[in-house]
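Contributing: when you submit paired examples, paste them exactly as shown. First protein:
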Amino acid sequence: MKAGSAMNIGIMYFRCAEATKEFARTWLETIEGNPNYWDQHAFNDLARKGWHNLPDSRLARGWDGRLNVGILPVSLFGSGHTFFVQRMHEAKQVQPYTVHATFQFHGTPGKRHRLREFQLFEDGPEYYDPPGGVITYEVNLTPQLLENSTNYSGDLADTKGHVDLVHHQLRDLRSAYAFAKILNRTLVLPPMFCGLDRLWFGHKGAFPGSEFARPFLCPADHVINMETLAKQRVPYREYSFLSNAKLSPAYWREGATLEVNEQGSLLTDEQILAKYSDLSGMPHVKTLRLSAITNAFSHFVDQNEQKEFEKIIRKFTTTWGNSITPQGGEVKYNWLWDMGAT
């Protein structure tokens, strides 16, 4: 069995045996005796004492030869990477028993959003009928953007294709966020696509040893600070929201499409309100779809409101980092890149 990395204890299965119970007691006594000893480190330190692999087996012998240890199949017991990023259960065509929301970047809001993207989080009925309805739009990506996004040799200079892909999507998301704010609707976040994986350590575009095609549908927390987004006044939902069976049929039946960028013109907040003021008289329109969202929003006329908008948007920024090269470093996404702002 090849298992050189630290074993994650988020999902565990103990066979009822005397050796197992004795190991559990020893583990508990170890961490109770040292409050600063992380339970996962303590587990690995104990289990890997005298570790040796058993021939022709998925098991190893651990804890000085007193315990058989194995790794649960990662397609059936998913981690935050094998499930949410690699989507191994889809590739293997199996139904997972459970998933552990690890390998994400923005605390509880990030974990909760990932589970919602896969419709695994249990929300109350009010979540599926937000006041004022929702606003959504289609992602518009060119084949060239997608094709160029995966070129990476380990040098930060090679991230241009990936960053161009992300920036294109963030620009459109910025416009949609402004429309949602102005029209008092809940924003349905789009599916986000990435050319490169996001990790805490150096890599060559993807998690070492992983198998998945790139570019890929990446979790929102790869490119958006979900903790900050969750604190703002504009409510949002996950990209899979409109396909959730718990949703009222009204969201599929009763919708309207706005041609928001008919001639490539950018609209201010005042123009948006004037142009779409009739929406206030159509409460039955649950789903508002924006067409041609690219460059649809220009700015808020009030300078103070525009500054506040840019301030909020900047807080959504997250980074892509790598330390595989001697130079190391990170790339900081810029939601205002096309406006000449940093």
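Second protein:
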Amino acid sequence: ALARAEGEAGADGAAPSTVLTADNFDKLVSPDEPWLVEFWAPWCSHCKKLEPVWRRAAEQLSGGLRFGTVDVTVHKALAKRFDIRGYPTVKHMHRGRARTYEGEKSVLGFAEYAARMAAPAARAFGSVAELRTWLGPLGRAFVLAGPSAALADARLASAFATLADERHDALTFATIGASAAPAELLSIGRGGGSSGSAPAPPATLIGVLDGEWFDPFEPPAASDASALADALLTWANAREWPSVVGISSANFHRLRKRANVHLALALIDPADADGARAQRAQLPAHALAHRAAFQFGWADATELADYWRSEYGVERSALPTLLVLAARGAAGTSASDDHHWRAHNGTAPLARADEQAAFLAEIAAGALRPERSGAPFSLLGVLRTAWLGVRSFATAQPTVFAACVALNIAFVASLAWGGGGGGGGGRGARAKRE
């Protein structure tokens, strides 16, 4: 079917999810109320997988949030207008802004995102201790600290407000209205160390508090308001990822581009609930010990099983496992190839927390040589990669695959039939000349 089952909204807009078209989009998607809009294509297997999740989310989260869908194969102008380059793409639209949703495509993920967007861009706290209690040991927030009555640097406060409005869809922002907060935050230091004989702290301070770390923003000298806001946005974007993050196709390549940081992945199989839970539970402790050298995350390895197998040799039977992708240009690697380490002892994955901690420590110290990702070039490797691609296509699009096979068979048959006929004609012509 070329149309989703949501149905058009009635006069009262009561349908859980609205089919949006070029004719009704601007009439229905009002800047006064928030929308989540899915841009999808009928042939897209990931869109089909999302459809029941989308329907449940629209039914359960209808209060205060509208849901809609756009078929990009029909409404190409809407796809171009919102720069849609992959499917499904979910956009949050409110107050004249369209933001790409990059979180987990689940009912819980959509619910958490809706709550985040409905809340104030920055949450106010009375002290550093209050903020740290709210965040927890691995929580993370961008902080504006200074006396609440009259901030000493209004330009800095304005730049922070602009940043919070721009990025609160993905980042957490907080303000601490206490004159002692800047000095207290700076005393946390990098990795829990003391700042020692540091100069007197500024009255107004911006930084990111990440567990036991505090990384202050250093405003550029003699900058106007616009340059200050741009510098703060650039600084924050370079520090956007939390210590442990869920990884999917939406953010994987962005994480791989982080400079000088290895990507430590807990690859799990959701069908093995106990194993997945145990592996994910180890990540916070690893992150506390090694966040300077690694970005930690977890991923459902069954979604891209062929990729993990062909590039890194990870079979489903080996899940859960810890895989570390080397930072670009790290020691023992080349700029043109990807490299990795697998947490195993030669026969089985390293499952215990202490084994994985020792494994990560060796990588951080440069004591383990990485493996080159992907099989060396060979005819067998090329054929295997081609077979994996064909099998994935056949699984995702069985109808299209069957049609392609039938067309190829028909083409070969026509060549064979035509060749036979031509051959007979040739013999007849030769016989006549003789």
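If you have annotations for the second protein, write them as plain sentences, like these:
The chain is about 40% helix and 20% strand.
The longest strand covers residues 262-268.
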